Amino acid sequence: MTRLFKHLMIGMALLPAPLLAQPLILDYGTFYGHMKTEQKADFGVARLGFYLRDSATGQPCLAQSVRIHSDNRDRPAEVATDGSLILPFDEQVYLDKGKVLLEMAEQHERCDLSVQVMASLKPDDKGRVALSDIAAAQRDMQALLDKMAGMVGKHFLPDVAGVRVSLVPVSGTAYLDKGAEHLALPWKEGALLLGNAQLAAFEGGTLQPNGELVRLTPWLHKG
Prior knowledge:
Helix content: 10-25%
Shape: globular
Strand content: 35-45%
Strand order of the largest sheet: 2-8-4-5
Number of helices: 5
Mean pLDDT: 87
Structural class: alpha+beta
Low-confidence stretches: 1-21
Oligomer: single chain
Radius of gyration: 19 Å
Distance between the termini: 13 Å
């Protein structure tokens, strides 16, 4: 079932040809199938993020711009600040066999498409995030993970050990607070891991990230 996990959760779908020229042209249908799954139910703050990564180095394949071409016309799409592709959900573009056209920042020999279950939360005016909001986001992401895996596959998913918080800058110290209780949590490589036990111990408290909160993703235990 490791193979199933890699296909559904890490979402590494090998692109069909080496990236030898710009712009990069991808089938809109590659994205539409995943977006259709997301559209089938209300998953709260959970959503899918589409990323391109160099298959040799694992580093991002960053796009400068992206547009959708179908029915002899172009329409704009977006590249988010974290490099993810934000595409419109449009059945007609799918039926028209539309294309996603990307102007790449750098040339890569080959890239993979990574489909990531994720969520976004904004701190309050004091820079804090309520742990109740993080717990709710975790439940939303779990529901979307289950939907992506399907009726059978969801029973073989790795356990969700907690939440991975992606932050900018690459290192710093965050704090969990609940009344008189305080816990310092250093982070590195742009990621802070919040385990289920920590989330339960500080239930009703807050996270002070002391950095820009980019996104939340499930922390999956593979052991």
